[in-house]
Structure formats: C-alpha cells, structure tokens
Amino acid sequence: MDEYIPIIKGSEINDNPFHPVSKYGVDQINTYGDETEIEWIHRDRRFSEKLATPDVTIADLIGDIDPIKAATQRLHYSHEGAIHFGLIPRSNRGIFAINELPDLQPRIQVGLFNILEEKDVQIRGFNIRIPLDVFLVFTANPEDYTNRGSIITPLKDRIDSQILTHYPRTIEDAIAITEQEAWIERNGRSVHLPYYFKEIVEQIAFEARKSEFVDQKSGVSARLTIAAMENLISNAERRAIMLNERVIVPRMCDLPHVLPGVTGKVELVFEGEQEGALKVGKALIGKATREVFKKYFPDPLQKPKRTTAPQGQPEKEVNEYSKIVTWFENGNSLLVADDMPQAAYFAELNRVPTLKEIAKKYFKLNDNDQYGLASAMEFVLDGLHQNSKIAKDEVDHVTYYKDLVGTIFSGKGTFEDYD
Length: 419
Description:
The chain is of the alpha/beta class. The chain is built from 19 helices and 16 strands.
C-alpha cells in the first residue's frame, strides 16, 4: 500500500476525492468542488481486524440504521445520513481481516457474499449500493473446520486464494520469529543470551512436532517457543535482581522453568496423558538439549580412541570427556541451583577437571566472560547426562550431577530415560 493516501476530510469510509462513493463524500465535492478539504492518512490506519466470535452481527461488519444518529440529526430513517457503517466499509481503500472465520455464524457468512462477489455493500432498508475497494483476509486453523464450526461452501468458493502456512522449516527461521515476538530485552539490565539457548528452545518445538505423545492434529504453534523463551529469561532476570547481578544470563538449571510454557501449549494423545504432561515436557527438553549438544561437541557415544599403556598393563580407552566421567565415577558429585551467586556457581563447576577447557575450546570463550563460560560448562554436563554418561537429579530447583552407574545400583535418586 502507498504510505499515505488522500481522503475527503470527515468521511467515515475513506472517500477518494476523485471518486467519492458515500453521500457525504459526493455532497462535499458538489458543494466545495476543488476547495474540498482533504486529509492524508497513513497506511497503518488502513488495516482493521475483527475476531469472529459467535455474537458478531451484520451491523458490526457491514452496518445498519443508527436511530440515535437519526434522532440527533433529525433525519428520517430513509435518509442515507442515518446509516452507521460497519467495520468493512470503514476499511475502504485498505485491508480488513476476520480471524477464526469458522466461528462466524453461517448466516453472517452469507452476508459476506455480496462484498466478495459484487465488491459492494448493501445496508438494510436502502436501495443503494456502495462500491468498496477493500482487500479481505480470513484466517482459520485446519482443525477448526470440524471441531468448532465450519466455513460454508459458497463462501469458500468466493475466496480467491487459500494459503496453507507451515511451521518454520529451519532452526534459524524459528529463532528469527521468536526474537521478533518474544519479550527478550528487559529494563535496567543487559541480557546476554547464548545462541545455543535459542537453539534449545526452538528444538523443543521441533521435537514436539514429531513426538508420538503429542497430538499432531492440534499442532505445536510458535507460541510455545515464545512462552518458553520468556520464561527462561524471566527466571534469569529474577536471579539477577535477587543477587544484584549486572547481567542476565540463563543457565541450564533454568530450563525447568520453561516447562509451564511447554506443557500448556501441547495437546497430548492418550499415551501422552498416561505418561503425564510433566514427564513428556521434560523428555522434550532433554531431547532438544541432546540434539543441540551434538552440534557443538563431539558425540560422547562415539567409540573412544585407544591409548598405549606401559608394558604389562591393559590399554585404556579415552575421549575428551574421560576425565569428567571418571571424576564422577570416583564418587564426586556437583550441586548447582538457579539462585546460586555467579561466583559460587562458577567455582562449583570449575571443580570438574577439563570441564572449563572443553567449554572454552568449542565455544571460543575466554576467562573474562565468566557468565557465558559458566553457563557453557553446565551445558557440557547436561549434554553428557542426556547422552547417558552421568546422572542428574532435580529437587526443589537444585540440580545434582553424579555418577550414573552408582545411581542406578544404589537405587537413590531418579534417573529418567529420555529416549
């Protein structure tokens, strides 16, 4: 649309000064000619929308007689000036959208026939037609055609094009949508959001869209990732305010706070209901973490390299994670919480040998960025857990990392298989 267009000043339906269609516009041109006052309106004012609720009427959309207007201006009901125009005529020379079209009552849908076919509106009780220049857009979810209502066939026949949208096909596209829509920037403190957190949040939705526990007919909308991202940053912001920290940086132990944004956005099938929404949500987060971990780090499940040992001793198999896993196998454990001060959080993670070096190597970080480095170090631990190398327990917003085999045989704690 043009950025600005001229209309006859005071016109309710954006009359074109060169081709007025309302009685008011015609009278203004006949009375004042070239001296008719005009007004320039921006394209932002030329878009209107209406949610199709069951109580929407023809008067709302097209118009009707306004008895109060007629009485105030002392007009007869047969006078054109007594017409109160609805939303569609008021969107003349613009765009009008009706959301959730199946919820519109069938008799109201019939009232749209003339606009779509003849490009004009007819107001009750008047032998007049007002030609409109309006672009109509309708939205509907495929599930709505059968569940809540229907679009009547003659109306579908008059709609020129049906556009089927799709989910974001790539993580990058999904991230761009979430960044555009989510409340990320917070007042007062700067937000440092590592890119892998964005990928994890989007991967949750990708995993949900192929999960056997999620009802794929209902779908998984982009609102899931928007809500999840806002919850993640909000918990990090809460911690920064409580501890008076200058930077808002999410941690892996913040991810449980994403769950309400996930469980509330997916419909589960019968098997999913039996598993429980919370368990399914945790499994989706776990799978997402594992997929993103594989993008940045070597696969922990790959066969390790053999190293030569002194004569008479067996050869050892080692990989980059060997020292980390061995540290936990020796009975050590790690405790992190979402309300831990940054210095204590980093110091606790730094107890694990080679953990910092691995995070620095693959994320290209340095010691000056302790916030980002600490989050990356916990990401390595969580990735090892998702690949069944170490165990993890979560109790009252406190996360424990410990030896996997010892946890299984002792029967203590909970170990969830995210496969």
